[in-house]
Amino acid sequence: MAGELTVSIDAMGGDAGPSIVISALVRSLQRHPEVKFILHGDETVLHELIAKRKGRFSTNVSVRHAPTRVAMDEKPSYALRRRRDSSMWHAIESVKTGEAEAVVSAGNTGALMAMGMYNLGLVDGISRPAIASVWPTQRGQTVVLDCGANIECDAEQLVDFAVMGEAFARAVLGLPRPKVGLLNVGSEDMKGHDAVRGAAAILREAKLPMEFVGFIEGNHIAEGVVDVAVTDGFTGNVTLKTVEGTAKLISFYLRSALKRSFLSRLGAVLASGALLALKRKLDPRAAGGGLMLGLNGIVVKSHGGSDALGFAYAIDTAIDMAVGGVNKSIAADRAGVVPEAALP
Amino acid sequence: MAGELTVSIDAMGGDAGPSIVISALVRSLQRHPEVKFILHGDETVLHELIAKRKGRFSTNVSVRHAPTRVAMDEKPSYALRRRRDSSMWHAIESVKTGEAEAVVSAGNTGALMAMGMYNLGLVDGISRPAIASVWPTQRGQTVVLDCGANIECDAEQLVDFAVMGEAFARAVLGLPRPKVGLLNVGSEDMKGHDAVRGAAAILREAKLPMEFVGFIEGNHIAEGVVDVAVTDGFTGNVTLKTVEGTAKLISFYLRSALKRSFLSRLGAVLASGALLALKRKLDPRAAGGGLMLGLNGIVVKSHGGSDALGFAYAIDTAIDMAVGGVNKSIAADRAGVVPEAALP
């Protein structure tokens, strides 16, 4: 289905290093036997890790040497100037030159975004890229963006995000006409600041392959009221991290509560299958990574920096985005939106 | 301990009406036998509800007639103009005239804030009031503000919130030197927009009875890294509601998971004590309501609009705030802060 698809991998990103990347590839090569992979990184290390592997590793995986790597705590501006021989830079360059359709990295998020913007530029009509994240809800999944690429956003940028989220939901989640909402402090038209009200005015008039439901409140995300929840990167980032903290807190409470007595411990053993299912449901690795939407090339940041399964999910998402043609949809849909100044 | 304390109650606020208020009072009169209560509302209805009650209801509770009430969906501006004969208005007026120290209402949040500001004004040195909420964390509790009173905030307003949160944590949570953090997209000094960076600059130099820990990220709230987490009302409101939605979603997953098989159902029965303890821990009613800090009078909005226990917790919080002298602390602490323009 994916034809001649090639995915470029920053094999040295993340805290855990290349061994989890190789473990992730075992799974990806099974699930996507038609996809080719280019691994960028220290060739000695990578060849050694691959030497033990067989099967499609010899036919579908190639290694490209990159002498350095971007550290997790390097400033994006520093990485952009000084890390042009890094595995991350080379991995992105493979997309720029056209030999790969998508890049996956578990490395420094800010550096990945900066190098992505510098090398790939933006999809036509988009003024700023955004980081999107897919959250579980009571009805399925919701795409939330921006999760931190843009600290302050005007109305047109929020419209960019709505279009990018809608295109992703159509291409990857398979929803023909996704429901899109703007996060606000209330659902009435007069609520919020100029940027959200301006974006709502534009989106209400726009002819887009989505159902714009207007303003939504925070609780509507988990309730599954929308498929795409749009907000500025400050609110999105704080909310995303607070929710991750809350999920951990509840697990912590649940574990302590279940350890309280003999009966509760016995109950926990009997219900262990159910509790494991719950744990899987809340596993942030299953979200498929942080999607850098709006870049003129597919860039996915793996959340699972220390974990092969998380990296494999991020590869799945990158492949789905390439096959689904997300960026073509974004460009086509954004072109049809009438700007606020030209509204009747 | 509370001496001659009187609490004014809007007995007609909330969806559930006055019967839950009377049930809440049964608990409050037991816990606070020294406190007097003034109930504002429909006197026929209230006298009828109280007629069956005995004990301190006859000595500590008085009823004041108010012919109308504020509806839950009325606009604050409308309520402020047209509802001056309502139970909410009269309840706030009891604080304005000095016959009560605090007011508790389960009614319309926006109207309560508007009437509170109009009638009580602000604590000296505070430019905007804020809604604070107390969240459970891995280490105890954290005060989060603003949760929605102010959509856009500058640096000085964020400083107001930090002072109000710190004073609340000292007076009510009993922490002599609370840890205060500013929510941001990262903990490095250069992160965020002008308002958070400006507020951090002011707070770093301020001599306040708190430990200013600088920028924090969303996950730090649940981890209990700070006692007070400060943010603008847009971010705070979206985050608060998203977290409430997430907690409900996880309960929903847990319930469905535990129903999956005979064994998991049996396990759930055995662990039911532990699961109930978890439920209590996550109960938003236990948070003691939404605190309207910065008003020159104590105003608490009960979350438990439909529930006596939630209302009783809100009364507890109002009493703690009055006894602890929150507003005196706010005024004294704010006066000592050097404005950004005057920083060295």
From TrEMBL, chains A, B:
InterPro entries: FA_synthesis (IPR003664), Phospholipid_synth_PlsX-like (IPR012281)
Main location: cytoplasm
Pfam families (UniProt xref): FA_synthesis
Molecular function terms, GO-annotated: phosphate:acyl-[acyl carrier protein] acyltransferase activity
One GO cellular component term: cytoplasm
Keywords associated with the record: Acyltransferase, Cytoplasm, Lipid biosynthesis, Lipid metabolism, Phospholipid biosynthesis, Phospholipid metabolism, Transferase
Pathway: Lipid metabolism; phospholipid metabolism
Subcellular location: Cytoplasm
E.C. no: 2.3.1.274
EC main group: transferase
Catalytically driven reaction(s): a fatty acyl-[ACP] + phosphate = an acyl phosphate + holo-[ACP]
Biological processes annotated in GO: fatty acid biosynthetic process; phospholipid biosynthetic process
Family annotation (HAMAP family): PlsX
PANTHER family: FATTY ACID/PHOSPHOLIPID SYNTHESIS PROTEIN PLSX, PHOSPHATE ACYLTRANSFERASE
Physiological role: Catalyzes the reversible formation of acyl-phosphate (acyl-PO(4)) from acyl-[acyl-carrier-protein] (acyl-ACP). This enzyme utilizes acyl-ACP as fatty acyl donor, but not acyl-CoA.
Subunit structure: Homodimer. Probably interacts with PlsY.
Family: Belongs to the PlsX family.
Name this polypeptide is given: Phosphate acyltransferase
Organism, as annotated: Rhizomicrobium palustre
Gene name, Swiss-Prot/TrEMBL: plsX
